[in-house]
């Protein structure tokens, strides 16, 4: 029984596969995720139809992005997804106009992916469709390929920072085939050994000059001096 002025709660637990602040369709009904719950938005029939069409488009775009980022995805699968994207877009725009049009913006602007969908349309200065985005016809994303080798210590350091977000001496040794001592010597003044700290495998722990020469620099330099006195090598 409901007390006076109390509404029926039509919300449902949030689907973890739905991004926060995004629309979705469950059993034919439109929901909008807000944190841990998904609620029924107040939409008229036309707006609800627009949202359902844009949800289909959004999910298709995301699947295409996922395929293009997957190094194992075949060109045939990617092309098939592009074909589906073209079909969905043509069907939607024939009924409801451009994604960028006011009616679609009012219905779907609260979705976290709305502006991604807007980028599917290349518009002219008057706001009319000039052409579809390249995503409809060509691969626009290439899967990440990690660098397998580096010729110099400086290149190895740049790759380590990019891939590992730190100075990973073991990784840099793999890239160059050089021992850590040689790499450290070549990068003198660019990286610094942190006194009293070692990597889990027992190797000396190094950081970049920017990281080392921040904070209490005097204390760090005193530590380095003591370490050098204890270990002249």
Task: Give the SSE layout.
Blueprint: E1 12-13, E2 23-26, E3 29-34, E4 37-39, H1 45-69, H2 75-96, H3 102-108, H4 114-118, E5 121-123, E6 129-132, H5 153-164, H6 169-176, H7 180-186, E7 191-198, E8 204-208, H8 209-212, H9 217-230
Description of the molecule:
With 233 residues, the chain is an alpha+beta fold. It has nine helices and eight strands. A four-stranded antiparallel β-sheet has the order 1-4-3-2. Strands 5-6 form a two-stranded antiparallel sheet. The longest helix has 25 residues, at 45-69. It is elongated, with a radius of gyration of 27 Å. The model has no long low-confidence stretch (mean pLDDT 88).
Helix content: 40-55%
Order of helices and strands: EEEEHHHHEEHHHEEHH
- Total helical elements: 9
Name the shape in a single word: elongated
Strand content: 15-25%
Structural class: alpha+beta
The radius of gyration computed from the alpha-carbon positions, rounded to a whole number of angstroms, is 27 Å
Strand order of the largest sheet: 1-4-3-2
Catalogue the unreliable spans: none
N-to-C CA distance: 81 Å
DSSP, total strands: 8
Mean pLDDT: 88
Main β-sheet, in a few words? 4 strands, antiparallel
